[in-house]
Amino acid sequence: MALFNDTSAPKEPTLTGNIIKWLFRLTLVAICALLFFIGSLHLLQDTGEPQQNGLASAFSQLTGLNVEIGTLNEFELFPYLKVDFENVTLKAPDTGNIQGRVANFQFQGPGSLVFTRKNAFHKINVQDAAFFENGFAALQIKEGGIRDEKGQVPQLQMQGRLGERALSANIPLDKTEGSSPTLYRLKDGFPFKLKVGNSDIDGAVLQDEERGLLAFLKGQFQNQNMKCVIGVVQTSWMKTEVSDAVGVTDTGALYRVGLSLTSAQGISLTLNAPLESLSETGYAQILSKQDCAQGLQE
Fold this sequence. Notes:
Blueprint: H1 15-44, H2 49-63, E1 66-76, E2 80-91, E3 98-110, H3 113-116, E4 120-121, E5 123-133, E6 136-147, E7 155-162, E8 165-176, E9 183-186, E10 192-196, E11 199-208, E12 212-221, E13 224-236, E14 239-249, E15 254-262, E16 266-274, H4 284-287
Antiparallel strand pairs: 1-2, 2-3, 3-5, 4-9, 5-6, 6-7, 7-8, 8-9, 8-10, 10-11, 11-12, 12-13, 13-14, 14-15, 15-16
């Protein structure tokens, strides 16, 4: 009697057996891929010279400047994206002139930011940064980061100087309750409060399909109080202009206006040609819905 030799005909594999076999193989492949991915992340996230040079290259592409990182204190990709570096120098790629210096920058966000690029983050901190124009410090940031006090709306705050004028900026944030670490996001419409010298304005940024980014502003523009100003945002190095702009003064008069933000003049607003009706502004649909334009001829 044969105890171990089976002389019966071999059985054909069943459909269920094939499915189980392939599912098992795919599971093994997925596990190996995941382990390889995690291992690769651990190789990437370090503070050595390859990681430091890689980050400098990434920030150079992002800013259009040559970025040099003095010290990389921390760099992680998973489970959180963490960056902490010191003594950063930004140089113009054509002349090599120094365009900026940052003493310390810290950032932490979800690891998914690498793939999604959403405006979600846990921590932002900037210390002692300066950005130069014609060899002078046009913008200085003493400190910037998230301020989250009990009972208050969390804000991204910045303190410093624009040219010779004191500068402060506050950007309210949305906060995800119960998350650990706490998750923050920029609010829809990007509302903000900006103080430069004796100018004190509240604003928001609107996305327009035809014009691009529109700024909607109100407050004290040096010596002129405005109920509202709207125009197209245009930015260059150390200069922001609101072009094709119109505004309503505190007396209810409608004007075409010129508006810019520079280190030399701070927030500068000029009243140009007066307008008779909202239809002349190019922003009639937007302004007609705003309190500042109530009572104006459409």
